[in-house]
Design goal:
286 residues, mainly alpha, 12 helices
Length: 286
Amino acid sequence: MLVLLRLTIGWHFFSEGVDKVRAGNWTAEPFFANASGPLAPQFRKMVWDAEGDFRLDFEKVQLQFARFRDQVGKHYGFDQAQLAEAQDNYIKAMKQYSYVVELNSNEIEEFKLGGDRIAALEQDPTRSGVSSLKGQMETIRRERKALIAPLLNQIKGVWSNYELAQNRVADEEQRNAHPAISIMKPPSPGVLMDTSRIDVILPYFDVVIGLLLLVGLFTPLTGLIAAGFLGSVFLSQYPPATGPSSSIYPLIEGMGCLVLASTGSGRFAGLDFFLHLITRRTADPD
């Protein structure tokens, strides 16, 4: 039964990771953005540029687009004609960005005013113990998110089209020799890890954890790491609600990972059997 449990959880991690890798554009942003419970503010901060501080700053975007223009030229080894085309793409993208921001100037101003209002409410100690006032603050957050979401999506479109246009400047030989690259997202200030890094790491994390469980290698450590990850998923959506997306399911699977870790289940039909055998022989050569 321990072997079956290990294989089941291992296959779940592995298949989830493979699906994320194949998708190419998977992101944990909606998950963190909709976090609930007492730790919700910490999880929401893990969404890259959740408040649009970077994407709504003209100078920061201009600098990042210019850096990407230079980076893509060095990456592929552009000639003078290609460098000129990359410059044209840069100018076009900045014009599109400026147009989008100008078109939504009223929404941006209202969004910033809403942020000041939330900050004032959070500093009011009388609101922390009143559920109705907490609900009011959540309503304001949802309204702000709905207000700015269309604009951020438009900027995302400009961003993606710019990346695509610059990579297309490369000829077939250059594309075959070098993989496509993306504009780097600077880390969010004051956050150890945000979705700009999580989105890259997590798919491969799932694949590695899944493979280790499937073959039964380093099972105690792998089980603890998997349990810690699933525990964080549970805490991000606490308390668990009913339904197919309830966080109670990650909690149950996390408990299963603790069972695998504590029983050393990799020793049964797994590679940990050989590690255990080598360790015993080293400790007791007679």
